[in-house]
Amino acid sequence: MVWGEGNPQAPIIILLDNPGARENRDNQPYVCGTRQTLQQATNEVGLTVDDLYVTYILKRKPTRAYDKEKTRDICMSHLKQQLHSKQTRLIVCLGNVAVQSFFQNPEAEVKSLRGKIHEVNGYPTTVAYHPLAVRRRPNLWPLFLEDWKLVADRYFKQ
Predict the structure, then answer these.
(1) Rounded Cα gap, residues 104 and 63, in angstroms
(2) Assign residue 117 a region: left if phi > 0, alpha if psi is -120 to 50, beta otherwise?
(3) How many independent structural domains does the chain possess?
(4) Residue 83 lies in a domain
(5) CA–CA separation, 74 vs 151, rounded Å?
(6) Is 154 exposed, middle or buried (0-12, 13-18, 19+ CB in 10 A)?
(7) Range of the domain at 63
(8) Mind listing the pLDDT tens digit for each residue in 24-78?
(9) Which of 157, 107, 99 is nearest to 126 (CA)?
(10) CA distance 51 to 7
(11) What does pTM read for this prediction?
């Protein structure tokens, strides 16, 4: 099981779909491009590792074929318990899969929801493109950074 990484008491929760299958070689659940892109954006807007906790819809690395929808439904109850135990001030969903799972709407997408704060399951929530999508499509970087500026503005004004 991979619960997350960062400051467990952080006020900002970053929500990804699942830890990658090839990750955790260095005992760190999110590595490579995801980590680098997140760190670059959060550093640029003035957030530190103490402000952030990264967690997942799925709490384990995918190892073989599985029923993704059923597994996400089961894991959502774990996520709800996890969020309930924290002092979450803002949730940032990264990527369409995390957005659709957390918003509980298979039609939800980053493209139409980004740039605003939404109330989801009682939590202020915003969305942004997945860091790996941003790495693959550099034209998304300005939008990704804009979304992290929204997060930082909200956080520093509270």
Answers:
(1) 24
(2) beta
(3) 1
(4) yes
(5) 28
(6) middle
(7) 4-152
(8) 455 554 456 788 899 999 999 999 989 999 988 876 666 666 666 776 676 676 6
(9) 99
(10) 7
(11) 0.86
